[in-house]
């Protein structure tokens, strides 16, 4: 049997990572290139001429005299953590298929769990914002699922406490090969929620294949063509070939969530889901994930800890 090219690709080895990003100076040079590909540009006036204030590590525009740091206005803004530590976090978040917990990330980076949590969630925020505007098109497999387990003594099945409802969608080729993934936390499995997701995430005239859950018919409100397939319930329904890839994606996500994280709060679920989506949609080239995510990170506004911790993130 031929090997799966995606699964067995080399990715970026630790030795290669150290060669590219193994010092603070290398990391600063890489970020400079990501932020200013054509050379320094003043964020205030657009001026190109500048001088470097070595004692403060800042750049001063020769035209307006405004000073700016390399990471001001980016997701790295105001960090006290060395940039090489951020780059190691980029490595672990992009090269591990099942994700990594903040506790384990803290051990590997040599920082506290709280610091690792901040870094992880800021980078996950970049992933989420990067994916937000991209739509699925063509043939789309759609299914519902829950994150989290049952609580003792509570209701079982749909609506049980301690579960976060999500919707998964996989864009495939006409032959059924997976291309891209979308995951969305929803308030519940209602027509309004499905219509909202479809309008934000699917191109009109897409062909959506789903099971017989009534709320999925709302994809037609976004201009999509709906093909419901009555599957019944139980394990047999999950093996229906029409939903092969969306079921595979959901199974992988649930296994990774169970094996990697002790618990996931509902309000933080979109960022955890964004990690899986980001890696899945770029799975054909693991080595390029670090520069692609870093390039996006310097174009993502700062995300203060208070917002990471308290704010509800829209799905």
Description:
Pfam families: DDE_Tnp_IS1595, Zn_ribbon_IS1595. Residues 135-281 form the ISXO2-like transposase domain. This is IS1595 family transposase. The chain has 315 residues and is of the alpha/beta class. 38% of the residues lie in helices and 14% in strands. The protein has 11 helices and 8 strands. Strands 6-5-4-7-8 form a 5-stranded mixed β-sheet, with helices on both faces. A 3-stranded antiparallel β-sheet has the order 1-2-3, with no helix packed on it. A hairpin with a 5-residue loop joins strand 2 (58-61) and strand 3 (67-69). Helix 3 crosses helix 10, helix 4 (102-109) packs across helix 5 and helix 5 packs across helix 9.
What is the strand content? 5-15%
Which series of helices and strands comes N to C? HHEEEHHHEEEHEEHHHHH
Output the strand order for the largest sheet.
Answer: 6-5-4-7-8
Identify the CATH class of the domain at 139-148 and 159-271: Alpha Beta
**Quick one: overall form?**
elongated
Strand tally is 8
Name given to the CATH architecture of the domain at 139-148 and 159-271: 2-Layer Sandwich
Task: Give the CA-CA distance, first to last residue.
Answer: 40 Å
Total DSSP helices:
11
Structural class: alpha/beta
| Radius of gyration over C-alpha positions, nearest whole angstrom | 22 Å
Low-confidence stretches: none
CATH topology category name of the domain at 139-148 and 159-271: Nucleotidyltransferase, domain 5
| Average pLDDT over all residues | 89
Percent of residues in helices comes to 25-40%
Offer a quick outline of the entry:
The protein is an alpha/beta fold and 315 residues long. Helix content is 38%, strand content 14%.
